[in-house]
Specification:
Low-confidence stretches: none
Strand content: 25-35%
Radius of gyration: 61 Å
Number of strands: 24
Structural class: alpha+beta
Distance between the termini: 98 Å
């Protein structure tokens, strides 16, 4: 609460109230004065009638003194003076207030009546001393304001005190929280140190480096902190003897040269006798005179790093041996195409020695061989590529790759060139042989397609024989050079496309039947034999078996129609939900039709049975395969039965699989 505005508001209110009081009280006092004069008139009426002056004189003299009249005049009905009485003189205070016009003088007049007849008049000059009452009231107002001011000041002081207490309490709480955070941070730091491989030491700058502080995790080298702090084991005694003199000299050198922080690597011997490498980061501690008093160190076991460095050095040595003796050419170029490395036994095939071209520009040396320049350019642009480079009678298959530095930034090109001269000759001989074979295949009664898989995963059609033209009823010549998906769109959505790619790369083989449906009927069927013919190449032999497949399909439909009603038959949609079931299925499960239809196979057969015996086979049937197997099933209505189960894919009019027909026969 704001004290000043409140005091001002209260003062304005009280002054306004006081002003109203003065106005109304002044009027009230004057009215009371008139009433007294009337009373005086009534009292002296009989005396005025008889003109007896002694009694009214005494009375009015007393009244003038009691009421502070300045003068009282009594006249008869003819205006003649009957009595003229002077009141007591004013006091000094009254004189001051009269001079200041704070005490008004009122002329109070009243008729004197006797037995209902006016017999004269009385008038009094009255000093209205209501100002004293006003002063009292005003004093009370000031007292109220002063009391209110003191009260508000007390409230403000109390609130200020409460605020300060609250602020100080908050500060203390904040300090307490900060202290707790600091303590927790210290505890966490201690926990981190104790849980980390870094061991903390503080040694005296004395012979043997006595330990005065050590972290508890020193146990990782087999010693306890008590053993080191008690002096029973000197730190110098756990340093490897071959390193002790060296690190002692280094400490003396660093200390004498004014270096306050230094790093050392040396070996220590653990309590169980093992040798471990450590990295010691030491800070020198000085006293007030600047003399070295202690050493503070963070000691970290770096044995694994040392072993890794040793392994790396050994690996680099072996790599150098491999590179220098490789039956290939291994080279590294910088970003400008300048040789940084040139090694390998095959350099002599180019008339070069290892390292001979280091510092020379590959772009200038091989400016006349576009394939070399293109390979370097693509690698400098971040793309790994390989090219066939011909140097006279020698042919190299060269792989160019971006060379990345330790920050992952491209810093040049690394390449490997392998002599494929003999392979190239063999390929040419193979091509001649393939040409002869093609002549034979062209006359074969079966169709044949050949493909090549490019680096961008495009499977490109290379051609077909004359029997392929006849069987498929098309001319294959315009399709040469097109991808399989563009040349034969019908295969794009089948698994055959990916199978061909795997065959071209991995040398797998494929023997399968490819059936084409139209409006639910077999439009065409082919027996396919696919195999690899070379690197990223494959061939497909196919024969038209449409009539045979139609006969087989007709036979299967016939068999389904004449199946015994004792078999458990059902129709399962692509989503694995039962769409129709035979009565034998309901009896076997002991359920009503509504308890099976609309539910998934896993819900009806049970999740475990579904996962172990049904799921994979159902997926095979949904992919277009006919699946048959035998297994043991537990039925609520039949008990444990051995079932011969068949899954047949069901096709819609467009040839798409819309579900699976399942048939289970009890062969128990």
């Amino acid at each position: 609460m704001k004290t000043k505005p409140t005091i001002i508001a209260c003062a304005v209110f009280l002054i306004a109230a006081f002003s109203l009081f003065v106005v109304f009280y002044q009027s009230h006092v004057r009215h009371m004065g008139m009433a007294q004069v009337h009373d005086h008139a009534d009292i002296i009426a009989s005396s005025l009638w008889t003109f007896e002056k002694s009694s009214p004189t005494a009375y009015l003299t007393l009244a003038a003194k009691a009421n502070g009249y300045e003068r009282i005049l009594v006249r008869d009905d003819k205006g003649e003076m009957f009595l003229d009485i002077s009141g007591p003189p004013p006091t000094r205070a009254d004189e001051f207030l009269l001079a200041a016009h704070l005490i008004p003088i009122y002329q109070l007049t009243s008729n004197v009546e006797f037995e209902g007849q006016t017999i004269g008049s009385i008038s009094a000059a009255w000093r209205c001393r209501a100002i004293y009452t006003h002063f009292y009231i005003l004093f009370c107002v000031f007292l109220v304001l002063a009391g209110l001011w003191f009260f508000l000041k007390l409230v403000d002081a109390n609130r200020t005190l409460e605020s300060r207490v609250k602020d100080r309490t908050a500060e203390l709480e904040a300090e307490n929280r900060e202290r707790k955070r600091t303590e927790e941070a210290l505890r966490q730091a201690t926990l981190v140190v104790e849980s980390s491989p870094a061991m903390l030491f503080r040694w005296k700058a004395e012979e043997g480096w006595p330990v005065v502080l050590v972290s508890e995790n020193v146990t990782q080298i087999g010693y306890t902190s008590e053993e080191l702090l008690s002096g029973s084991i000197a730190f110098s005694s756990i340093v490897h003897p071959n390193d002790l003199a060296r690190i002692g000299d280094e400490v003396q050198t660093y200390s004498a040269s004014g270096v306050d922080h230094f790093q050392q690597e040396y070996r220590i011997i653990t309590k169980d006798g093992r040798v471990r490498w450590v990295d010691d980061r030491t800070a020198i501690e000085r006293d007030a005179e600047g003399r070295i008093s202690h050493y503070q160190g963070i000691v970290v076991d770096i044995t694994e790093r040392k072993l890794a460095e040793r392994a790396l050095h050994e690996s680099e040595r072996k790599f150098r041996a491999v590179v220098e003796n490789a039956q290939a050419i291994i080279f590294v170029l910088d970003k400008d195409g300048v040789f940084q490395l040139s090694e390998g036994q095959d350099l002599d095939k180019l008339g070069l020695r290892p390292g001979q071209v280091v510092g020379q520009s590959a772009i200038e040396i091989y400016a006349a061989i576009p394939s070399v320049l293109e390979g370097i350019r693509m690698a400098l642009n971040g793309k790994t590529n390989h090219t066939i480079n011909v140097f006279g009678n020698v042919v190299f298959d060269t792989v160019y790759s971006p060379y990345l530095d330790s920050d992952g930034q491209q810093n040049g090109v690394v390449g490997v060139a392998i002599d494929i001269t003999e392979r190239r000759r063999a390929e040419e001989a193979l091509q001649a042989s393939e040409a002869r074979l093609r002549a034979v295949i062209d006359e074969a009664p079966f169709g044949a397609h050949t493909y090549e898989l490019h680096d961008d995963d495009r499977l490109v059609f290379l051609g077909g024989n004359r029997s392929a033209d006849r069987i498929l009823g098309i001319d294959h010549s315009p399709l040469i050079g097109e991808t399989l998906e563009k040349a034969f769109p019908g295969l794009a959505s089948t698994a055959i496309s990916e199978s061909y790619r795997r065959i071209a790369v991995g040398g797998e083989s494929l023997n399968t039947d490819h059936i084409i449906y139209e409006q639910g009927q077999i439009r065409g069927a082919f027996e396919i034999h696919a195999f690899q013919t070379g690197s990223n190449r494959m061939a497909v032999f196919f024969a038209d078996i449409t009539e045979r497949k139609r006969a087989e399909e007709a036979r299967r439909k016939y068999e389904r129609m004449v199946s015994s009603t004792q078999d458990l038959m059902a129709l399962v949609g692509r989503d694995g939900i039962y769409e129709a079931v035979s009565e034998s299925v309901l009896l076997a499960h002991g359920r009503a039709r509504g308890e099976i239809l609309g539910r998934t196979v896993s819900e009806v057969m049970g999740e475990t049975v579904f996962q172990e015996k049904i799921r994979t086979r159902l997926e095979q049937a949904l992919s277009g395969q006919t699946v048959r197997f035998q297994d043991v099933f537990e039925y609520a209505g039949l008990g444990r039965r051995i079932m011969d189960v068949s899954y047949f894919p069901m096709f819609d009019e467009a040839g798409n699989i819309e579900g699976v027909v399942t048939n289970g026969r009890d062969i128990t």
